[in-house]
Every structure is written in C-alpha cells, then in structure tokens.
Amino acid sequence: MDELKPLEDQLGYKFKDRQKLVEALTHKSYKKPYNNERLEFLGDAVLDLVVGEYLYDKFPKAKEGELSKMRASLVNEAGFKKLADALHLGDYIYISAAEENNKGREKPSLLSNAFEALMGAIYLESGLDEVRRITIDLIEACYPKIDLGSLFKDYKTTLQELTQAKFGVIPDYILKDATGPDHNKEFEVQVFVNDRLLATAKGKSKKAAQQEAAHTALKLLKDEDKS
Amino acid sequence: MDELKPLEDQLGYKFKDRQKLVEALTHKSYKKPYNNERLEFLGDAVLDLVVGEYLYDKFPKAKEGELSKMRASLVNEAGFKKLADALHLGDYIYISAAEENNKGREKPSLLSNAFEALMGAIYLESGLDEVRRITIDLIEACYPKIDLGSLFKDYKTTLQELTQAKFGVIPDYILKDATGPDHNKEFEVQVFVNDRLLATAKGKSKKAAQQEAAHTALKLLKDEDKS
C-alpha cells in the first residue's frame, strides 16, 4: 500500500493503523464492507471544534456571532474541498468506476467528506492535537487572511456560488408579498433553485428579505448534504 | 464565592480558575463585561464531539445516519436542559432582575446555553477527557436507555414538542398542492407555526411530505437558536 505514502508525507503524519487510512479514503460507491461515512461523522465534529477553538483563541474580543460566521465560512463543503485539494486528496480516494466516470474525484461533496473522514481517523488514533496541527496549518496556507471581513461573504453571494457549483444554476428570488403602509412596509420573498422552493423570509426591505431567505436556504442545503 | 462549591461537588470537578466558572454561569442580561456566549460557542462543539464519539464507540455497526439521528436526539436544547437540571444549574446562573421575573432560571434556552458554556470552560482548562467523563455520566444517568428506538422520535412529534415548549402552540400543516396521476401523486405540504411559514416539502404521501416539512422546520428552528 505504498501508494498512500505521499499522502502521509504531505500530512506529516504516519498512520499507526493503515486500515483506518484506507477506510477514510473509501467512498461508499466502492462497495467494500467499510466506507468513510462513520469516520466522516466523527471528523465533522472534530473539525468544528478545532476550527472553533482556533478562532476563539485568535479573536479574544470577537462576539459569539462573529465567531460563528467565521467558522461557517471555513467549515463547509467548499472550504474543506479547498483543504482536500491542497492535499491532492482526489488522487487517493477509492471510488467506483461509475463515480470515476462521473468526475467523482473532483466533486466537492466527495472531497469534503473524505477530508472530514481523514481527520476523524487521525483523531481516533492520535487525538485532537494532531488534527489541530494539520488542519490549522492547511487553513493558514490556504487562506491569505483570516478575519471576518475577508472570510464572510453576504448570504446571497454565498448561495449563488454554492448553487452554481452544485446545480449549475443561480437562485431565483420572487417577491411574494408586500404589506403594511408605505413608511413601514414588510416584504416577503421566496427563493427557488431549479423551481424548488428553498425558503421564504420577511424583511423591512426587499434586500433584507432576500438575504434572510438566502441564509435559510444555505442552512437547508448544508443540512441536506449531511443527511 | 463559596456559593459555587456545591456545583463543583456535583460535577466532581474543581475549577482551576474560578473566574471561568463565573463567566460560564453569567447570562448576557447580567450586564457584566463578560458573559457566557463565547464559552457556549466552544462548548457546543465540544459536546457535539464528545457525544458523537460516545455513540461512535457504543454502536460500532451503526450507520452514519443512525449516529446523526441519535446525536440530534441528545444534543439539543431540551436534551441539555435535562442535563442542566440534573446539576441544578438554574440555582447558580447569574441573570438580571428582569430575566429573574421572566422565569429565566427555568428557560430551556438559558439553561442549555449555560450547560454548553460550563462544558466549554472545563474543556479550556482541562481538555476533552474531563468533559467526556462529566457529560457521559450525566447522559447515562438521565436517559434510561440509549439506542435509536428509544431516542429517536419522528419529526412531527419532535417539532410539536418543541413549538409547544417554545411558543405554546402546535404546528399547522396545510396541503398546498397534489399533482400527478392517481397512482403516482405528489403532495406538497406547508408547515406554519403562529402563522409563520417554516417549511415546504413534497412527498409521495401526505404523511411523508409532512414528516419532511417537519424535519426542515426543526433544522430551521435549531439554527435560529444558534444565531
């Protein structure tokens, strides 16, 4: 199994149990008795904590809401794909021939999940410190600047980037209702992707309602990825 | 500050830095230069990991989806309120007179947040092992049985319990549309709480669409609690 040695070198981490590494790299399409979904479940929580603690320490004055926003900008499919790409993880994963034809090695969800599983496996073997070292090094190498202004994009922009990457389309916003007197109007907006209603939201302006709808839609798509 | 000694005894943990304990118990209404929101941010992730790892170890054959469902049943506001109550945390938290009058010491959100913050503080001082010991002992004492069947309630039931506790009302489900031929109908259902549309979902039966709508609504309410 020396094909995995370059990945270990890149990580600066030698697996005690090579089978755990293989499991972390095995997509469910590969039809083995094991796959990386359980390790991904664990890795997801490990990464939330490691990145959360990093931001907690780095920004001692930041409020909880700012920490949450920064973490959400780093801890998501696109963010983990970036870290997976830095490790060339796509070259190492085990996927079926069908997934291979389907450009599986480049899929954000597949790469992000494999990265989470990899960190889950290292956590199980060696604990939080080792995952922290690897993840924070990768993040600091991949992001030119880590602060709220640089990381956090508004929700409409983030949603558009996500739906373009995932579905090849941009969201549609529809004004469903405007109620109240002129000086105190309330707007209700719906956001659709591929004719599917993702969210409805209200706001004091069309823009505010759209942002809120995009925010809700992002949470929904993120949760769907997890389940 | 000996008023906090019984809490430490209950936890079986003596704080190295008593100020961290005070911070974890201080609600933002108390108007101090510090409050427990940052520690709660950290504790939330610590608990996700500790409970996730516990289930990962306890159920070596469980699939990722089952682990996620079990964790979601333990790691939520109602679940943490249960653990907070076992510690009588309501007796120790620092809240404003207004919150006091508003039954703040019994509020699920307030107690759940304080519990998360407390675990965040212990993690910072003493690491994951100490949090694991305390949390898992509490969980095993508070739940008669830990398995998927005992923990996981269907989404409609869970949503109803949540909206009753939070808003004092039950959700309304409205059939919005039914399309397709009789043998292959698709139903579209909306769920409202207090006249607010929380989610829309489709399904092959009314029941399936309602479950899916309730699932989405639960995610939304959970996310709103966090932000």
Automatic annotation (TrEMBL), chains A, B:
It is found in: Cytoplasm. It comes from the Bacteria. Keywords: Cytoplasm, Endonuclease, Hydrolase, Magnesium, Metal-binding, mRNA processing, Nuclease, RNA-binding, rRNA processing, rRNA-binding, tRNA processing. It catalyses: Endonucleolytic cleavage to 5'-phosphomonoester. Residues 4-127 form the RNase III domain. It is an enzyme of class 3 (hydrolase). Mg(2+) binds at E40, N113, E116. Its EC number is 3.1.26.3. It holds the Pfam family Ribonucleas_3_3. The active site is at D44, E116. Belongs to the ribonuclease III family. Digests double-stranded RNA. Involved in the processing of primary rRNA transcript to yield the immediate precursors to the large and small rRNAs (23S and 16S). Processes some mRNAs, and tRNAs when they are encoded in the rRNA operon. Processes pre-crRNA and tracrRNA of type II CRISPR loci if present in the organism. Homodimer. This is Ribonuclease 3. It comes from Hydrogenimonas cancrithermarum. The gene is rnc.
